[in-house]
UniProtKB/TrEMBL annotation, chain A:
This is tRNA (Adenosine(37)-N6)-threonylcarbamoyltransferase complex dimerization subunit type 1 TsaB. CDD domains: ASKHA_NBD_TsaB. The gene is tsaB. Residues 33-227 form the Gcp-like domain. InterPro entries: ATPase_NBD (IPR043129), Gcp-like_dom (IPR000905), T6A_TsaB (IPR022496). The lineage of its organism: Bacteria, Bacillati, Bacillota, Bacilli, Lactobacillales. The keyword Acyltransferase applies.
TrEMBL record, chain B:
Its cofactor is Fe(2+). Pfam families: TsaD (PF00814). This is tRNA N6-adenosine threonylcarbamoyltransferase. It is found in: Cytoplasm. Keywords: Acyltransferase, Cytoplasm, Iron, Metal-binding, Transferase, tRNA processing. Substrate binds at V137, V138, S139, G140, G141, D170, G183, D187, N276. NCBIfam families: gcp_kae1, T6A_TsaD_YgjD. InterPro entries: ATPase_NBD, Gcp-like_dom, KAE1/TsaD, TsaD. GO terms for molecular function: tRNA N(6)-L-threonylcarbamoyladenine synthase activity. The keyword Ribosomal protein does not apply. Residues 27-312 form the Gcp-like domain. It catalyses: L-threonylcarbamoyladenylate + adenosine(37) in tRNA = N(6)-L-threonylcarbamoyladenosine(37) in tRNA + AMP + H(+).
Length: 243, 343
């Protein structure tokens, strides 16, 4: 099975072309010189060309589906679902945090991937490799205060490896709360790598309804949150209608 | 038999996700429009992040429906076209991203289209265009007078200095307790009332072709608030009629002035506010007197609002000129047509 994996969840962009478990080509850009919108498709084009493949040769499109930057998620998800839908191929969405955690391949400890969600909040997910090489979810992806997620991890009382570019910049707070229980990924392993994403996506089930596939934002918009304080979500007209 | 030119067009600049298939720049084979109005009504206006989220959930289904209704395959397409600005950046990006992928995946040229050019070319579905022509583009985001000297050759000769006309309708609509978007209901109320308040006609007497609606909006709001403080109730229909009279007077006068300076055979009234009955009536009556030989083209309702068919019509012109984009195409939220001085 040939697959294309893509991740523009945060500042870094990563794209990989794989044949089963073998990586054919990969690009990771971490210095953001251009918008993801300008550089994602050109990168896909050049990696496919370098792999001697056309878009139609890809059997499965694997996308980092969130959480992350809203605009970044939408660019990768729209790209992946448009490829899959119009070429009649498979689509797989993988947690962007699981993809980060998968960068720490050689540990049996709990791996916690973090993304800065601003105002003291993070997106966090806890993962662990099983003996048979699957990445198991220990703490489901969530949006919460950094101090809160650290309290949850402290309660588990086990060695934890923190990963993700943002986790490294939160080192001080993490160590303050967890002390010697906290370990950190090295800065290279902490970057999102589409090959790791692809490896997870290769063994995941494809989405049944490609049209309905959307990013996992893990957070309502501010407008909706405010509106819900005084309104009920039930019994309304469809929010979007074909006219 | 001549080969069919088939353009798959995308439009997602604001709160409508639309995909269309256009044959030879003049026939609509499909024009799927998914509108988010019910969602944004909750907030009294378009919330950009909510709009972007809806676009992602709609985009591939709209492509499927457009292709199925047109009964064409990707192999039969000639090109892909997309609105790349002006508009909300997050919204634009969904159409731009999807259009780029379809173009690459199916080996098709990609045509970038200016949203305003699209609004003007909606008129092509009414009848063939005769150049040079003049267009009045009025919508929630735009109020512009544009000359089109030849196919695809645009120059802005008049623009709003502040609010767009449609934006002013939404803002005063809120004061009248009308839910977003307010244009249609204000128009209906205006037909029940009289112009009794004599609101200001900003810039009406000035020599230029520019517009300003923020003073009118403030005068309207002040009038209502002042009455509220005195415990008076004003006739809402008269308020609507007075507001609409001020807007349509200025739009009509400036359009007449433009026609005096730029002789043309056709005037296109484009954009969402083109559906306004009051504007249509006043403009038609004024032109019948001052320019009986100018043909006024107002596209049907479905084509005056945002839709991808109009983008396909504008793309047909760009295709003939060989104006293509590559995979680096990005959304340009502040994109405009050239000013007359630059053209």
């Amino acid at each position: 099975m040939k697959l294309l994996a893509l991740d523009t969840s945060e500042q870094a962009m990563s794209v990989a072309v794989m044949e089963d478990a073998t990586l054919l080509a990969e690009t990771t850009l971490n210095r953001r010189m251009k918008d993801h919108s300008e550089q994602l498709l050109p990168t896909i084009e050049s990696l496919l060309a370098a792999s001697g493949l056309g878009a139609d040769d890809i059997d499965r499109f694997v996308v980092a589906a969130g959480p992350g930057s809203y605009t970044g998620l939408r660019i990768a998800v729209t790209t992946a679902k448009t490829f899959a839908s119009t070429l009649h191929k498979e689509l797989v969405g993988v947690s962007s945090l699981a993809a980060l955690a998968a960068g720490e391949r050689h540990t049996s400890e709990l791996i916690v991937a973090l993304m800065d969600a601003r105002r003291g909040n993070v997106f966090a997910g806890g993962y662990q490799w099983t003996d048979d090489g699957r990445l198991k979810t220990v703490i489901a992806d969530r949006h919460l205060a950094l101090t809160e997620v650290l309290a949850q991890i402290a309660a588990l009382g086990q060695l934890t490896v923190f990963t993700g570019p943002d986790a490294l910049s939160m080192r001080e707070t993490i160590v303050e709360q967890l002390g010697s229980l906290a370990r950190f990924a090295d800065p290279v392993s902490a970057l999102p790598r589409a090959s790791r994403l692809g490896a997870l996506g290769r063994v995941a089930a494809p989405v049944a309804d490609i049209d309905a596939f959307v990013p996992r934002y893990l957070r309502l918009t501010e407008a909706e949150t405010t509106w819900l304080k005084t309104h009920q979500e039930t019994g309304h007209e469809p929010y979007v209608e074909k006219v | 038999m001549a080969e069919r030119e088939l353009i798959l067009a995308f439009e997602s600049s604001c709160d409508e996700t639309s995909v269309a298939v256009i044959e030879n720049g003049e026939t609509i084979l499909s024009n799927i429009i998914a509108t988010q109005i019910n969602s944004h009504k909750r907030f009294g206006g378009v919330v950009p992040e909510v709009a972007s989220r809806h676009h992602v959930e709609q985009i591939t289904e709209c492509i499927d429906l457009a292709m199925a209704e047109a009964e064409v395959t990707f192999d039969e397409l000639t090109a892909v076209a997309v609105t790349y600005g002006p508009g909300l950046v997050g919204s634009l990006l969904i159409g731009v991203t999807a259009a780029k992928v379809v173009a690459f995946a199916h080996h098709l040229p990609l045509i970038p289209v200016n949203h305003l050019a699209g609004h003007i070319y909606a008129a092509r579905f009414v009848k063939p265009l005769v150049y040079p022509l003049l267009a009045l583009v009025v919508s929630g985001g735009h109020t512009e007078l544009v000359t089109v000297s030849a196919p695809g050759e645009f120059a802005i000769i008049g623009d709003t200095r502040d609010d767009a006309a449609g934006e002013a309708y939404d803002k005063i609509g809120r004061v009248l307790g009308i839910s977003y978007p307010a244009g249609k209901q204000v128009d209906a109320m205006a037909h029940q009332g009289k112009d009794t308040f004599d609101f200001p006609r900003a810039m009406d007497q000035e020599d230029n072709l520019d517009f300003s609606f923020s003073g009118l909006k403030s005068a309207f709001i002040n009038t209502v608030h002042h009455a509220d403080q005195l415990g008076q109730t004003l006739d809402k229909n008269d308020l609507a009629a007075s507001f609409q009279a001020a807007v349509t007077d200025v739009l009509t006068h400036k359009t007449i002035k433009a026609l005096q300076q730029y002789p043309v055979q056709q005037l296109i009234v484009a954009g969402g506010v083109a559906a306004n009955q009051g504007l249509k009536e006043k403009l038609t009556a004024a032109l019948a007197e001052a320019f009986p030989n100018v043909d006024v083209i107002v596209p049907p309702l479905r084509l005056t609002g945002d839709n991808a068919a109009m983008i396909g019509a504008a793309a047909h012109i760009e295709l003939a000129k060989g104006h293509f984009a590559d995979a680096t195409l990005n959304a340009v939220p502040g994109l405009d047509l050239p000013q007359a001085s630059e053209a």
